[in-house]
């Protein structure tokens, strides 16, 4: 919980029960699965509306190689425009957080971690997949990501971030260009995010990358709009 008693950050409310509560003008972001409000399951409604607003999400979940290639192409194009907006910001605003959310630079660093974790470690089977400047979500910090080579105190600038971003997304470009249904079905080691456990099909790993890149671009655009409005430019 933050200093504001009404704000919960990185809070695990799994299994919580709220009875006779008042949620006027409340906002919730995060992993929402199995939530019911007034006896209505919310997750299918959220997913349907997000799919309507962002139809590329349907491609992100597909098992068809051509759909996944097209989904990646779309999100890459979207991120090209978003990166241009980030480059245009003064350096302090690149590091500015809106309502406690990740800054623009932190968002990029997190997506590098996602690609390292769900593609470099799993699909490519790299022995040392992690860039030290990658940013893990707070719930993973308890599992000692520093043992993987991640630097929790890292604070890279945009130039360093973009170098790693270009390297890793280029590898994704190349892999997706030639991947097949058989390759998508191939079993891969588990990611750090999913915890040590059973092997995962490459398809699941690529879905995770696409969905994260898509979702965090939307969050970044939302916050960039706020930053530009506040800055008056």
UniProtKB/TrEMBL annotation:
Pfam families: DinB_2 (PF12867). Residues 76-219 form the DinB-like domain. It comes from the Bacteria. InterPro entries: DinB-like, DinB/YfiT-like. Signal peptide: none annotated. This is DinB-like domain-containing protein. It comes from Microlunatus parietis. The lineage of its organism: Bacteria, Bacillati, Actinomycetota, Actinomycetes, Propionibacteriales.
């Amino acid at each position: 919980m933050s200093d504001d008693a009404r704000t919960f950050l990185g809070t695990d409310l799994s299994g919580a029960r709220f009875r006779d509560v008042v949620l006027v003008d409340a906002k919730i972001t995060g992993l929402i699965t199995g939530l019911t409000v007034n006896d209505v399951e919310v997750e299918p409604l959220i997913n349907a509306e997000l799919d309507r607003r962002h139809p590329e999400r349907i491609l992100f979940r597909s098992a068809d190689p051509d759909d996944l290639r097209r989904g990646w192409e779309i999100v890459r194009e979207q991120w090209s425009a978003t990166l241009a907006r980030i480059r245009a910001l003064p350096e302090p605003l690149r590091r500015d957080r809106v309502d406690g959310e990740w800054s623009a630079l932190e968002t990029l660093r997190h997506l590098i971690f996602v690609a390292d974790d769900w593609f470099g470690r799993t699909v490519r089977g790299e022995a040392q997949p992690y860039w030290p400047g990658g940013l893990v979500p707070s719930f993973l910090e308890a599992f000692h990501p520093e043992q993987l080579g991640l630097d929790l105190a890292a604070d890279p600038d945009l130039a360093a971030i973009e170098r790693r971003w270009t390297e890793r997304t280029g590898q994704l470009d190349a892999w997706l260009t030639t991947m097949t249904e058989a390759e998508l079905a191939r079993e891969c080691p588990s990611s750090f995010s999913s915890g040590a456990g059973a092997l995962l099909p490459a398809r699941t790993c690529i879905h995770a990358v696409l969905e994260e890149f898509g979702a965090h671009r939307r969050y970044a655009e939302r916050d960039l709009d706020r930053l530009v409005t506040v800055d008056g430019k």
